[in-house]
Amino acid sequence: MAGTRAQLSEFDPVWRQITTEAQAAVKDEPLLGGLVHSSILHYDNIEAALAYRISLKLASSEMPEQILREICDWAYRSDPDLALAARADIVAVNDRDPACDRYILPMLFFKGFQAVQAYRVAHWLWCEGRHDMGRFFQMRASEVFGVDIHPAARIGMGIMIDHAHSIVIGETAVVGDNVSMLHSVTLGGTGKEEEDRHPKIGDGVLIGAGAKVLGNIKVGRCSRIAAGSVVLEEVPPCKTVAGVPARIVGEAGCDQPSVSMNQLLGVR
């Protein structure tokens, strides 16, 4: 990890691609020049651009942009993994979302990506013991993006949340690396339990639109959860589940369902 950070400090291909696309966007659509310059071209690195974008989106009369910007800047300085995760998320969105053909789009327009980055700062605050500030970030992200992720939840890298409307991820949920989910997904509890009560999602899982995964259950790596399913029991690795309640209906159909984004049951 240290070697990766050193390489990125010298040559950051994701940031270089973003700035190249930003320059082209200004040329193609001059009326967006102010937005693109203030959000991307004004900065030397992705950390500063993300801090600006998050603070701009979450600012309100209760908490001004400048204070949020200072918090985000401090988070990115303190934990380089935050920006590494953001880079992985951008690449994931560009690879998996057919509506995304440029790295610049998640930075400027995709609320799923922006909500996940706000969560990452909130999680850093939570781990620093600043629980109330983490909750403030959670509240504002929910109000602004329609994505409610508890700051104590643990979420890996390479996350793609498509459309990202009405996403709920609970306090003790764990989401692995390279997970894809669509709108209206809930990773929730089943009642008033106060301990470990939320799902544990393995690496490479695809969760379809409107799916609900409830309780302290495991969803094995590289599995598929069909749209509209309600999952109440553990899902083995590399399986497809569907229905209410969800049942195993077959194999996952490929090695990386979260990358292929194939949501059609019975299609290999």
Automatic annotation (TrEMBL):
Fetch the Pfam families from UniProt.
Hexapep, SATase_N
Q: Which reaction does it catalyse?
A: L-serine + acetyl-CoA = O-acetyl-L-serine + CoA
Keywords of the record, alphabetical order, are: Acyltransferase, Amino-acid biosynthesis, Repeat, Transferase
Where in this chain does the record put each Serine acetyltransferase N-terminal domain? 14-118
Gene Ontology biological-process annotations: cysteine biosynthetic process from serine
Q: What class of enzyme is it?
A: transferase
Q: Name one GO molecular function term.
A: serine O-acetyltransferase activity
Q: Does the keyword Acetylation apply?
A: no
Which Enzyme Commission number(s) are listed? 2.3.1.30
Note the CDD domains from the entry. LbH_SAT (cd03354)
The record's annotation in SMART domains points to:
SATase_N
Q: What is one cellular component GO term in this UniProt entry?
A: cytoplasm
- UniProt-listed InterPro entries: Hexapep (IPR001451), Hexapep_transf_CS (IPR018357), LbH_SAT (IPR045304), Ser_AcTrfase_N (IPR010493), Ser_AcTrfase_N_sf (IPR042122), Ser_O-AcTrfase (IPR005881), Serine_acetyltransferase (IPR053376), Trimer_LpxA-like_sf (IPR011004)
**Entry-linked SUPFAM superfamilies:** Trimeric LpxA-like enzymes (SSF51161)
The family classification in the record reads: Belongs to the transferase hexapeptide repeat family.
* Name the record gives this protein: Serine acetyltransferase
What gene does this protein come from? Answer: cysE
